[in-house]
Amino acid sequence: MNESVKNICCIGAGYVGGPTMAVFADKCPHLNFNVVDINEQRVNAWNNNNLDKLPVYEKGLKDIIMRCRGRNLHFSTDVENNIAIADMIFISVNTPIKKYGVGAGHASDLKWVESSARQILKYAKGYTIVVEKSTLPVKTAEMIKIILNDGKSKDKEFAVLSNPEFLAEGTAINDLENPDRVLIGGEDDYAINLLVDIYTNWIEPNRILKTNLWSSELSKLTANAFLAQRISSINSISALCEKTGAKISEVALAIGTDSRIGNKFLSAGPGFGGSCFKKDILNLVYISRFYGLEEVARFWENVVGINNWQQTRISELIVRKLFGTISDKNIAVLGYAFKANTNDTRESPAIRICQDLINEGASLNIYDPKVNSDQIYNSLKENQKDFCLENKNINVNKNIEEACINVDAIILLTEWEEFRKINWKKIALLTRKPTWLFDTRNFSNYKDAKKYGIKVWALGTGEIL
Ligand code: NAD
Ligand code: UGA
């Protein structure tokens, strides 16, 4: 056993691995962090001297990278050597939903986790603490343990811990620096204490929760499921508001002031996106069915069902409002990332809504402050069997004004700050009349738009008269 931890390796330099290890390195200058990835392009981007080209956009990340990179934070493709020198290894690889085979569409594809475990077994030396950082189905640690223990030898010994990550994109640095809690699951007290020692460099010990491995794994899936469930709940009520004359912002305020309900995660919108909510709930559904709990599975499946419905009903409503056809009409889409303050577009509601509108024959002008055109085109081409993407139907624009030239409608999809205070007087001079504004987040200064002759529909409120 080692006396202390000096070298830490993180397998996976993605949205979690990169920012997490950056904050660890910043808070623990006495430790050395090596983040490894098989994706050379991604590693090069992390090592880019131009900090505007880092693969992940997060507020505050550039400053930390500037302070730590090359000092005690290194990004590399050298998986073998960095595993060999590591005392502790975080597995922070992707765990998407399986596309084919048993459990396709629901179960996690664990091939990247399994290959990480096999790499660890092959290259690790001495006592190594292996920490699951990825979000994993309950009981995955068992698989990792079996792989590691089967190859155990005199010079290789392993402890396996679960330490799920709760950061949200867009606020990742703050979430990592001031987490509500840190969760550590495991049975090996020696290994747990070494991980606790790292966190207590900046986190009070009373915020570190210790559980068994299975509670830790299941808590991560459950936390995401509960958060997503709140969004589906408020989105279902947004549709009822539009039918009844109630306003979703007023209902959210009224229920959110009940301290038992709380006021967070009550913003109605075009449905939750992001790489995790859908996959984690579907995984929960899969596990529930696996254990014969059909009612539990169906309960959580409906959270995803409402989310899909919310996106479809928005695109259908746009078509209806534009006189039943959008063929050959121009539409500005403002916001493409799945939420503000990130460049991530995974599972963004914008993808589905844009695909629906293109399928109906519309031409789109898309503008997002942080998402580039390649990312937009690639995401539109993904997972769409019955979708014919003709690039001529899509322009990616440099700013709001350019996107709004000659359009029949403007759709606000992401709540970027710059969309809150759009100068509607200026925009109204650029568009074709009649012009519609669809505010799917109910967050803009749409009363101003109304003043300048734009017809307005806001989610959870309906048409603004
Ligand atoms: P990501 O796809 O951005 O990054 C994963 C990286 O792992 C990729 O760059 C990939 O090339 C690399 N990788 C895969 N197999 C590898 C191997 N064998 N060796 C070296 N590198 C390998 O994924 P992410 O968003 O960072 O998510 C990682 C995990 O964290 C997932 O389980 C996710 O559910 C969870 N999580 C994500 C978030 C989030 O906000 N994105 C938050 C909390 C938890
Ligand atoms: C979410 C969780 O918040 C994190 O705790 C978790 O670690 C992470 O998933 C993960 O496991 O990947 P993230 O997806 O980055 O984080 O972002 P959220 O802020 O949770 O937003 C998710 C989606 O819900 C976004 O599309 C957002 O626009 C939407 N949302 C959120 C709403 O529509 N309304 C709300 O009130 C809140």
Describe the structure.
There is one protein chain. With 465 residues, this protein is of the alpha/beta class. Helix content is 42%, strand content 15%. It contains 18 helices and 15 strands. Strands 11-10-9-12-13-14-15 form a seven-stranded mixed beta sheet. Strands 3-2-1-4-5-6 form a six-stranded parallel beta sheet, sandwiched between helices. Strands 7-8 form a two-stranded parallel ribbon. Helix 1 crosses helix 3 (61-68), helix 5 (111-123) runs parallel beside helix 6 and helix 9 (213-244) crosses helix 11 (277-290). The N and C termini lie far apart (71 Å). Uridine-5'-diphosphate-glucuronic acid binds next to helix 9.
What's this entry about, in short?
42% of the residues lie in helices and 15% in strands. The protein is an alpha/beta fold. Bound molecules: nicotinamide-adenine-dinucleotide and uridine-5'-diphosphate-glucuronic acid (UGA).
* Spatial order of strands in the largest sheet: 11-10-9-12-13-14-15
The total strand number stands at 15
Helix content: 40-55%
Percent in strands: 5-15%
The separation of the N and C termini measures 71 Å
Biggest β-sheet description: 7 strands, mixed
Structural category = alpha/beta
Mean pLDDT: 95
- Count of helix runs: 18
Provide the low-confidence segments as ranges: none
Shape: globular
Radius of gyration using CA atoms only? 24 Å
Which distinct ligands sit in these coordinates?
Answer: nicotinamide-adenine-dinucleotide, uridine-5'-diphosphate-glucuronic acid
